Amino acid sequence: MVCKRADAGGHVHADATGRLFVVATPLGDVADLSPRAARVLAEADVVLAEDTRRTGLLFKRLGLAAKGFSSLHDHNEQARLDQVLGLLAQGLTLALVSDAGTPLLSDPGYRLVRACREAGHAVSPVPGPSAVTAALSAAGLPPYPFTFLGFLPRKTSDIRRLFEKHAQTGATLVFFERKTRLGKTLAAAFSALGERECVVAREMTKTFEEFLPGRLSDLAAAPPEVLGELTVVVGPAMDDGQPTPADEVRRVAAEVAREGLRPKETARRVAARVRGWSAAQVYDLLLVSK
Known about the structure:
The protein is α/β, with parallel strands linked by helices. The chain folds into three domains: 4-129, Tetrapyrrole methylase, N-terminal domain (Cobalt-precorrin-4 Transmethylase, domain 1, 3-Layer(aba) Sandwich); 132-234, Methyltransferase, Cobalt-precorrin-4 Transmethylase, Domain 2 (2-Layer Sandwich), CATH 3.30.950.10; 246-289. The protein has eleven helices and twelve strands. The mean pLDDT is 89. It is an enzyme of class 2 (transferase). Residues 20-220 form the Tetrapyrrole methylase domain.
């Protein structure tokens, strides 16, 4: 057979190995799909989709005809690797898409891209919509540096530990959350991070798009009643240039101590929530206060 390949622009050539395109698809408004992305999807020999039915509906809305679909999701990605590498070895052009936005950002595909690189197959991004950058661009919070946390763990204790890990980085935090877990997650964020500005973004680029700003304490106490897909942006620590007063440090320590932690762990958590205090300084303050 005559092998084909597509160059980084999506144009097909003969007698070479295949290429995998990682294609960003719309979050909601189909007009956000770039002309290059539409061409790559239409010309790909196989489209690897997280949900083939959902991607099929997208193709129908765009007026595109797919040559072939194959599923690739969290539960079958490892098992699909040999099959996909075999298709690329035949010189076929493949396109990887997620349900919406940019693949690999909390979606499957990392193992596949890594395997393609290791096997010597070209991988090209076709950039476009991303819930992460869309939320950052419209939230009105410091956009950089930022840390993307993806979907958070299920256990509240694990969520809190994750936030504590990033409490002192000075970065804005971005993560995805489900509506049923939003209140618990915001409460864990306030417990671990202290008071910060926060924006809950829902249904971006869709009819009921909404950005809900507030402080973590307020949003945790009264979580917004929301539907749809959520992207949460939490700003860096609020710093007025002055260290947190000792009385406020003691108050936060008393709140944290209710969890029954050891003194040094309590001091570490308090230091993550206040300004201008190290864990050692908090520990010394609590010893003196006894």
